[in-house]
Amino acid sequence: MFLGTYHPRLDEKGRLILPAKFRDQLAEGLVMTKGQEHCIFVYPKAVFIEQVERIQSAPSSVKRVRDHSRIYLSSALDDVPDRQGRVTIPPSLRDYANLTREVAVIGTGSRAEIWDAQAWADYLEAAEAAFADQSEEVMPGVF
Q: Which of 77, 79, 81 is closest to 19 using CA atoms?
């Protein structure tokens, strides 16, 4: 499970040292792809395969399904972290997420997300204000 917020830095080659707490879960391979709100989703390879199976079970006759799967899957890249726990984020994903040297890597349960640090701070500022009020309406019976 991916939990927490970490602030590693991108090096000049677009490499990122994964948070130590995430490395074991990603050691066998990972997949990076475009996420919502201009972040990068990072899945363990096995979890991504499950995602693809769910996507492929959706009706391809629906345009929104086709649109989503095209963008989601065409932007996906698999990688294996090196011995130092580094992965290289390709330029296309760095551009999509507007990544600078300062990034935030957050855990969201089944995946990690990579954000530009300022974009993450801005998102938190906007979203936290309503967080306490939303829990019952967004997830009834859970909290």
A: 81
Report the CATH number that the domain containing residue 83 is assigned in CATH: 3.40.1550.20
Task: Quick: pLDDT tens for 95-114.
Answer: 999 999 999 999 999 999 99
For the whole model, what pTM was predicted?
0.91
Around Cβ 30, how many Cβ atoms within 10 Å? 24
Domain with 57 in it: 5-135
Mode of pairing for the β-strands spanning 40-44 and 112-116: antiparallel
pLDDT in tens, 36-65: 999 999 999 999 999 999 988 999 899 999
Q: How would you write 57-113 as a 3-class SS string?
A: HCCCCCHHHHHHHHHHHHCCEEECCCCCCEEECCHHHHHHCCCCCEEEEEECECCEE
Alpha helices in 17-59 (DSSP H): 20-26, 45-57
- Domain assignment present for residue 26? The answer is yes
- Asked if the model's pLDDT at residue 140 lies above 90, the reply is no
